[in-house]
Amino acid sequence: MHRLIATTSGISLTLAALAAPLSAAAAEPSSVKTKISAVTVYADRAQVTRVGAVDLSAATSGEILVDALPGWIDHESIRVTLSKGTILDVAPKTMHLAKAAAESVRNADAAVQAVNDSLRVINDDKTVVRSELDQLRALRAFTTQKLPRDVASRRVKMKEVAETLDFIAQRMKNAQKRLRDLDAKRRDLMPELNKLTKERNELRSQSLLKKTRVVVGVKGSGRAKLTIVYMTTGAVWEPGAELRVKQSKRATLVQHASVVNTTGEDWVGAKLSFSTQRPGEMLTVPAAKALLIGGGGGGGKGLGAVVGRLGGSKGQSFDKASSAYVQQNMAVEQNRSKWQAGYRRQQAAQQRALQAFKALKKRGTTAHFSARSARAVRSNGKSVRVPITDDTFQMTTKLVAVPEVSLNVVRTAQLTNSGTQPILPGVVALFVDGAFLGKSTFDFVAPGETFSAFLGVDDGIKITRDLDRKRSKMERGRKRTEVVASWVIRAYNLKNTPVELYLSDRLPVSSDGSIEIDDTKIPKGASRARDGLVRWVAKLGPKKSGAYRVEYALEYANTMAVQAKRERQMRRKKRRNTRTPAPAKSSKEYLFDAIDDLEKAF
Length: 602
Hints:
alpha+beta; Helix Hairpins; 4 domains; six-stranded mixed beta sheet; 35% strand
């Protein structure tokens, strides 16, 4: 004790030393105003970057405060940097946005109650007036019913009867007017009640909303630029495109991101970018695992285990933020069914985007796009289209037909992605010479890859595909059936200019040893692939036609045709009983169907 309190001056110095940190701790951190400068949108979240100017010398407590961030940001994703000075600590905290005072809520409840009391008084008065009207109607009925009897039994003064009926009519008229006045008062009170009820609900909902405050411990002097980056849920984007073709020489492809923002923050004046990356995977370090024969296996220690735990922690942190997002929005939203419908649409969009971007990962690639023009994306859940690429490609056109599938001749564009960015899978709107053709879909196209686009049906060429009955036959023996099928494809050029038509058909390919295929014939100059596809080019002059034959002989067991019909009937019956969409067919089912269709052709 004597060692601790040596002298009076020592005590004074000790108290002064203790008072300094206490006063500093009690001081409120210096608040810094920030604005959103950049946003990167992923399939199920957004990375937001805020910047602000801060005077480090004014931060007397050694702390600065970034306030009023959404209450559902991922705390573990927060990163803070200073252009000068040193950051000592970053401490995020979720708290109520504005806890309503009890007196304010009581006053709001009292105001709503007062209007409801007035409405109840009006309802009571209307009940009294209606009762009075019922009595007057009964009195009028009694008077009119009693009058004939009085006339028959005694002398009645009609003037008195008329005065009585006039009195009743006037009283009823007055009662009806009072009812109208009461209805008018009720109509006047209803908007006031709705307004007061809304204000009261808003006061109550404020206590349910939360915000995130980030306290940053700093050391330094002078002015500095503060940058804070964090992840937040409530954002999604999907790729889409428009392909515009002009005069069959060049095609312009504009890709856009359809982005939905319900993060609670408007993105105005921010630099927008869009990524197909999964943010949770960005922190994963690839590490090979040892294959140990015998022994304890290491117990999951080492760098790989540490990184795994880090990735798991990040995932749990974002799941917690997502849960807070749902809970707070459900608590505050008054029209809950409307909010749930919007939330389901957003979740469906997220699932589509996640599946599409997952397919890109299988190709070992991800893509990152920057917005080509500024767009304000409000936090109102409305989809906003933001252009992300604008490329013009050289184009050649081809006329393509697959008569077995369709007798239409399709005009296609043959393009090469000569841009620096990939073409993402998604829906593409097609325009030819300013006319909207419809919508199609694109698969992923990397820079340098070629791809095709649908440009409509060419009505200037007619196609037919018929079974040549003279060369075709079907003979069923005791055990086996032999079929010779000879198909004739005819193309008619109705134009005044020559055309080149790329045609495709197919020959059967047997994967069953009990089926024999022989005597195949294909058009002159045609190529035949291992899968049986036959391709050739038909050159037709103006107003000319051409005929092309695809022929083969097929031999199989008689039971196969019976089995084909049985398989088809069983599939139809199963679909009717289960009321489910048709499942994907197996290769054997395709074979049975082909044989059944072929026999029906005879």
